[in-house]
Amino acid sequence: MNLAHPLATTHSGQAETSIADTANTEKLAKPLRIAVLLGDAVNLDSHSAQVLGTFTERERVQICAADANQSTVHRPTAHEPKEHEPSVHEQRSLTALLCQATTAIEQGKLVELIFNDGNQPRSLYLLDGLRAAKLRLHAHAFIAGFAAGNETTDIANATAIANAAAIANAAAVASKALAAAKRSPVQTVQHQTVANTLNEAFVALRQGVTALAARTQAPLKGTTDIKQTNNTNHQTGYWFSDQHQARVLCLNLVAKTSHQADESRNLNQSLVLTQGTQLAAPKALVDENRLFVPISGDSINELKAKLFQLLSSLDIGAPDTSFALHQLAFWFERYDANAPLVLVLIAASSDDLKLEAKAMLTALENDAIRHHGQPFKTPAGSCFTAKPLGDAGLTFVYPGVGTVYANMFNNLHEYFPALYHQLEREGDLSAMLQSPQIYAADVKTAAGMSLSQQAISGVGASYLFTKLLTQVFNIKPKMALGYSMGEAAMWASLDVWQTPHAMINATENSDIFNHAISGELTAVRRAWQLADNEAIVWNSFVVRADSHEIKALLPEFPRAYLAITQGDTCVIAGCETSCKALLTKLGKRGIAANRVTAMHTAPAMLVHGQVQDFYTQALKPKALKPKAQEAAAHGSPIRFISAAQTAPVTVDSHSIGRAIADTFCSPLDFSALIQNATEQGARLFVEVGADRQTSTLIDKISHAHASQSTANAATAAIACNAKGADAITSLLKCLAQLISHRVPLSLAPLIQPLSANAAPLSSAVSPEGEPQ
To answer: Which of 181, 398, 616, 685 could crosslink 489 through cysteines, CB 3.0-4.6 Å?
Structure first.
């Protein structure tokens, strides 16, 4: 039987405020530290479940929401008072139960709250935070304080004054809870929601704990108002916090306790929750709505036979989701990582999977695909190549400034919570991604970012995806290159610079980015010898034209520059009037970028020394002098290719700083860079960062080279992200192509959710040092 346990004798006749005040006075002289664990099977790893099971029956107290709202059923000991009928306040009050539960928790007992969330039975386990630490239980959250208070509204005179009084009352209760928890409102996110029953209050509490464990800032179900006193953003997405500062949630619950003809009485309750050390289990990358089926074989005929087997099993299988997941596990078990050929099917349902399999069968009969190695891809992401490129020429490509976009991959943390946890411990993740701009409530905010903000955010996006590919999926590049400022992202992301996070603040306050080659364009003013009162109207234009045509006209337009050559397009920049005149004489139409930056133009050479000094950074010892045994274990060190020179860059501080400055200040020939990398062995280019702009350019450049000479080696460009597409779907499409090209990588993040007994991947993360 589920027991509703009255752990205190306070009952009818007392106002709810009195109950809370008693708790605050007697129990909350110092902040509470009640550990809360989500009781769902998916959220409790085997260790947690085993430890909680060691509590004896006498040490366990169960509180069932349904029972507590109807009657109290308890078997009292000889030392306990007789049971009583709770007041209407206690029946509907979470804070009253918490007052009572605190007594049991102080006695070393484990309190289990039992309730329903929709049609699903749920549990929350409460125990003393210190005891939880001794038992090595990592809590999903902690209850640090709570308070409650009644508020009466005269229905006949429900005016703005009365509403203001109600708001003030709720704010006073929240302030009391925060004071009890000794937490500053400035560092607190507040949620207000209606919870008229104890079960609804339990559900709201669970949602708050889940939000903290998932580090997700999102409105709770039933939320009527969201207030964030730290003035960040209201977007659903990762809950950024100041480095080494705990996330604090003040959960404000409103319940109508009585409703008479002339008045309405509301109960306001506030609970202060702080983040725990346990991360929420990662969402599954592969599920019934996102199918991913790798099929390996020694020959195309073997692949065809397995496709027929898959189609046969789909035809006879049950039409439920469990069948799809069962099939996924089966094909992953059959997958041979050493097989010479692999195709991957991606689909949103079993029916779609049939269509993808049939399309693949048709493709395998195509002579160009079967015998000449033409790659095959479907819009859904299914892919195959009969001539895999392997990882010998695997090259990470880092995009330049301007690729970041509003709300980019804002749900990625739900699938890789351990990675975000790690990155947050290593540096200021919010600053790295420029989250106030990228994840602002107004999506137009990202479009108005300054050059320095775009540069920081772009490097942050590349840094994040580099760690995702190399650490989570164990992908090891052989070469790396960058488009424009992507060279800086390359060095920051691939464990070369000793303190890459220090570059964030330096870039934010850099005269180079904010004034010299952007903003007021002081370097341009010096180069053009302009007076202080002479205006500069700067712009850049993308034009489909041959670079030689443009170069021939440049002497006539000294304030227009050929900044970038990229395949069949070029970028000209400079005085807007001069650029437009050049385009007119060229007979071409240009697309205005409306971006103010003098990178890759002659005036930038005036700050070459400053740029070199800025990027001359201390290196990590292992990057400076790779150990012979480490190189033997992990393969040859990465070769870093720069647009400034044909040979790989020597890995030392001076050479790196000079190469970045040369690229930054000189016209960029991205076509030549890709051709040079290809000549050095690059074959499979993987764009690591936001969007897929360089992948598109590389495809065009490679195809142009291939058409000029049949001797050119086959290459492929793959992006791991695409603006406007679901971030996880884009990532899976990238992984599918890498698998089809036989690039060694870990399938563990894909396989893990398919195993019923597998522990969450995030449980392997050491939470030491987590702020409380």
So the answer is: 398
Give the strand pairing for 141-154 and 263-275. antiparallel
pLDDT tens digits, one per residue of 159-175? 666 667 778 888 999 99
Residue 266, classified by CB atoms within 10 Å of its CB into exposed (0-12), middle (13-18) or buried (19+), is buried
**β 188-194/248-259 pair status:** parallel
Query: Quick one: three-class SS letters along 601-639?
Result: CHHHHHHHHHHHHHCCCCECHHHHCCCHHHHHHHCCCCE
- 260 pLDDT tier (thresholds 50, 70, 90): low
User: For residues 149 and 266, what is the distance between their CA atoms, to the nearest angstrom?
Assistant: 8
Calpha distance 6→708 (Å, rounded): 84
Amino acid sitting at position 440: A
Check whether 233 has a pLDDT greater than 80: no
- The sign of the CA dihedral 677, 681, 684, 689 is negative
Q: How much is the pLDDT for 324?
A: 74
Longest CA span, the chain:
102
Q: Strand pairing partners for 318?
A: none
Of 233, 236, 232, 231, whose CA–CA distance to 217 is shortest? Answer: 236
Of all residues in the chain, what percent carry a pLDDT higher than 70? 82
Alpha-carbon distance of 431 to 435, in angstroms, equals 7
Helix pair 486-493, 451-467: axis angle to 10 deg: 40
For 389-409, what is each residue's pLDDT tens digit?
Answer: 999 999 999 999 999 999 999
Is residue 288 a contact partner of residue 305, using CB atoms and an 8 Å limit? no
Q: At what angle do helices 350-364 and 321-334 cross, to 10 degrees?
A: 40
E runs forming strands in 195-247: 216-217, 223-228, 237-238
CA angle 388/393/399 to nearest 5° reads 110
For CA atoms 194, 197, 200, 204, the dihedral sign is positive
Separation CA 159–CA 219 (nearest Å): 28
Do 617 and 657 touch, CB atoms closer than 8 A? yes
